[in-house]
Amino acid sequence: MSTEIQDTYRAADHLRLATKNTGEVEMRLVDGAKIAWGEYLPANLIAAVEAECGVRLVPADAVVVLREELPEVEVTSDGKPWAAGRTALDAEHARGAARAYLALAAWHAAHPPVDDEQVDRIATVLADDQTLCSLNVRARALYLAGVRFEAQP
C-alpha cells in the first residue's frame, strides 16, 4: 500500500509513503529530479505528525466525541456536578459510565427495537397455510428489513 501527497506549490514534487514488508514506512521525497528517502517505524512517524500538526491520531475503530457535543455540567447547591441528569464520584467513575453508555448506544444501533404490533400485522398479511410461529419469524425479519404499515385512522 502507498500514498502520495502532492506538493502545494510545485506539481512535479510529492511525498510518497509506502509500507514495507518489515512493517516500516518508507518515505520518498521527490523534489524535481532529486529523491530523498528514509525508513521509519510507524509509531515514530505518527508521533511526528501529531507533534508537528497539533493533532491526535486515533485508531480507525475509535469512538470520538467532540467536546461541543457534551452536555453542560451544572453544580448543585450541595456542590455535586451534574450533566444531563447524572453525576459521578470522580473522573474514572465518569469515564467508566461514559464507556458503558457508548457500549449500550452501539448495541442499540445494532439491535433496533421491534414493534410487535407491526410484526403481528405483517404476520396477518402473510397468513396462508403456515404455522403462526414461522409467520412471526418471517414477519420479524421483514420488520427488521424495513417493512412498515401506514397508520390508519
Explain what the structure shows:
The protein has 153 residues and is α+β, with helices and mostly antiparallel strands. It folds into three domains: 2-53; 67-110, no CATH class; 112-153. 37% of the residues lie in helices and 20% in strands. The protein is built from four helices and six strands, in the order E-E-E-E-H-E-E-H-H-H. The strands form two sheets. It has a four-stranded antiparallel β-sheet with strand order 1-2-3-4. It has a two-stranded antiparallel ribbon with strand order 5-6. Strand 2 (14-19) and strand 3 (25-31) form a beta hairpin. It is flat and about 75 Å long. The termini are far apart.
Strand order of the largest sheet: 1-2-3-4
Please count the helical segments. 4
Report the strand count: 6
Distance between the termini: 59 Å
Compute the CA-based radius of gyration. Answer: 28 Å
Short recap of the structure:
Helices cover 37% and strands 20% of the residues. It is an alpha+beta fold and 153 residues long. The protein folds into three domains: 2-53; 67-110, no CATH class; 112-153.
Looking at this protein, list some descriptive labels.
single chain, 153 residues, alpha+beta, 4-stranded antiparallel beta sheet, two-stranded antiparallel ribbon, 20% strand, flat
